[in-house]
């Protein structure tokens, strides 16, 4: 398996444009399964999760064509509604296909999805929501069997604003008869992007981005050409990398409102930040200071996906920081790896107490989940000496051409295969195939 070799201690500086958001493109790709025609995504990112979603769509009978960033999904020939366990286990987002398949075929056969091991990650809210729309759902030998003669609009109250459940229910509701109201819906910007995509296809959805989403079902969907929103988590990661190294970054393709909570924390840590219409400029001090207490929460709170990268920043900031994750219960796995680099982090249940040390030192570390992997990359860029980050398949799920982006900012980084050769990256090999 490939690893990243990073020679740290160099301030990053320059300009970067974010890719399209992984967390927006995955539900949008799932939604293409219910549109009988050729949908085009104009700016599809090169990520292994995208590749895996395309493989599932191909298995279901969709024709996928990719030319650079342009991805075309032709779902006219979709003929299967069952997803093999091996494909389901590759990522959490495979569960997004339940709503679209129910809507297109009246049937969906799935099993528990995979994804990062950051907590128990049940699917009960997806099941409750789809059942409320009159789907019959049963479990047999670990398989989830969903059936619906006709989905019927309903009022759905989510006991927790789950992003995935909101999206799954929203997609199923598009084809249901009558109106659906989702209350206590998740408000993440990616849900607004899914609404924009589906409305462009002919759906009638209002309220995404607020706690109440109303969907008038039964509209005929037609394929469109669509440009997906920028990736606020990728953007936040690059800003944090620049901050950790005492550098500066002009980040384009992202609305500062999407990362307002994160920008406020970075300001507290001593960064100067200027906000533009679709860009952010950050200038870091020579040493960051602790932001005090930060709690990761559903949007508009501090993103749980940027909680691990923040740990790396706090690890060498001046003072003690207290970071709590109110979304996932086991999202501090990277703390042990950061300790190998000299970080002083104590994890108590859902809270990490980080006592900043003057400087991290290079070491051999291992990524255990996607954002924890990004945290190790940030720590490596800031550390003195060389770091090898192993198990980077996790990082490939969410950051396309990470090394190349960081090199443009002046980082000294190489991607190498297990036998020490420099490589171009699996995501690149996978996604430049003409047909997936
Ligand atoms: C999405 C994002 C992920 C992000 C997370 C929270 C995608 C592809 N992934 O994941 O990057 O970290 O939102 O912002 O968009 N829960 C239940 N029952 C359910 C569903 C969720 O109890 O049926 C719980 C989860 O265990 C977790 C919390 O709700 O503790 C949040 O999960 P959720 O918002 O659903 O996250 P995902 O959609 O999996």
Ligand catalogue: uridine-diphosphate-N-acetylglucosamine
Given as residue ranges, the uncertain stretches (5+ residues, pLDDT < 50) are 427-436
Proportion of strand residues: 15-25%
- The tally of structural domains comes to 2
Query: Under the CATH scheme, which architecture of the largest domain would be assigned?
Result: Alpha-beta prism
What is the oligomeric state here? single chain
Indicate the overall shape: globular
How many beta-strand elements?
23
Strand order of the largest sheet: 21-22-1-23
Radius of gyration over C-alpha positions, nearest whole angstrom: 21 Å
CATH class group of the largest domain: Alpha Beta
Mean of residue pLDDT?
Answer: 94
Name of the CATH homologous superfamily of the largest domain: Enolpyruvate transferase domain
Q: State the helical fraction.
A: 25-40%
As for the CATH topology of the largest domain, it is UDP-n-acetylglucosamine1-carboxyvinyl-transferase, Chain
Please give the count of helices: 15
What structural category do the secondary elements indicate? alpha+beta
Query: What's the end-to-end separation, in Å?
Result: 22 Å
Largest sheet: 4 strands, mixed
Note down, in words, how this protein is organized.
The chain has 2 domains: 3-18 and 244-430, Enolpyruvate transferase domain (UDP-n-acetylglucosamine1-carboxyvinyl-transferase, Chain, Alpha-beta prism), CATH 3.65.10.10; 22-227, Alpha-beta prism (UDP-n-acetylglucosamine1-carboxyvinyl-transferase, Chain), CATH 3.65.10.10. Helix 4 (98-105) runs parallel beside helix 6. Helix 10 links the parallel strand 17 and strand 18. The chain has 15 helices and 23 strands. It has 436 residues and is an alpha+beta fold. The chain has a 4-stranded mixed sheet with strand order 21-22-1-23, with helices on one face. The two termini are 22 Å apart. Bound molecules: uridine-diphosphate-N-acetylglucosamine (UD1).
């Amino acid at each position: 398996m490939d690893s990243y070799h990073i020679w740290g201690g160099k301030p990053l500086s320059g300009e970067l444009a974010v890719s399209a958001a992984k967390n927006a493109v995955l539900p949008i790709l799932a939604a293409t399964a219910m549109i009988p025609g050729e949908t085009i995504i104009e700016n599809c990112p090169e990520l292994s999760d995208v590749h895996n979603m395309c493989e599932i769509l191909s298995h279901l009978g969709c024709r996928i064509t990719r030319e650079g960033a342009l991805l075309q999904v032709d779902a006219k020939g979709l003929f299967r509604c069952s997803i093999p366990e091996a494909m389901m286990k590759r990522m959490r987002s495979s569960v997004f296909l339940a709503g679209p398949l129910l809507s297109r075929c009246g049937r969906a056969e799935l099993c528990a999805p995979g994804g990062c091991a950051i907590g128990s990650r049940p699917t009960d809210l997806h099941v409750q929501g789809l059942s409320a729309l009159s789907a019959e759902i049963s479990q047999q030998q670990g398989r989830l069997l969903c059936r619906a003669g006709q989905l019927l609009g309903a009022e759905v109250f989510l006991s927790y604003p789950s992003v995935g459940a909101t999206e799954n229910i929203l997609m199923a509701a598009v084809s249901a008869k009558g109106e659906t109201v989702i209350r206590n819906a998740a408000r993440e910007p990616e849900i607004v992007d899914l609404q924009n995509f589906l409305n462009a296809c002919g759906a009638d959805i209002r309220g995404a981005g607020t706690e109440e989403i109303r969907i008038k079902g039964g509209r005929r969907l037609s394929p469109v050409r669509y440009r997906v929103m920028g990736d606020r988590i990728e953007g936040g990661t690059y800003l944090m990398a620049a901050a950790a190294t005492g550098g500066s970054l002009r980040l384009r393709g992202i609305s500062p409102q999407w990362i307002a909570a994160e920008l406020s924390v970075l300001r507290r840590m001593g960064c100067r930040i200027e906000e533009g219409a679709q860009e952010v400029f950050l200038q870091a001090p020579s040493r960051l200071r602790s932001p005090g207490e930060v709690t990761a929460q559903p949007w508009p709170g501090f993103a749980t996906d940027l909680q691990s990268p923040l740990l790396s920043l706090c690890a060498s900031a001046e003072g003690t920081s207290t970071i709590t994750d109110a979304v996932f219960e086991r999202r501090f796995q990277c703390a042990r790896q950061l300790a190998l680099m000299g970080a002083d982090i104590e994890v108590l249940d859902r809270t990490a107490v980080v006592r900043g040390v003057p400087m991290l030192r290079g070491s051999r570390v291992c990524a255990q989940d996607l954002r924890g992997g990004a945290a190790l990359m940030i720590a490596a860029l800031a550390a003195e000496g060389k770091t090898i980050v192993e198990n980077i398949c996790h990082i490939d799920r969410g950051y396309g051409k990470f090394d190349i982006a960081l090199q443009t900012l002046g980082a000294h980084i190489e991607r190498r295969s297990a036998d020490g050769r420099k490589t171009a990256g699996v995501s690149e090999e996978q996604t430049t195939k003409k047909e997936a």
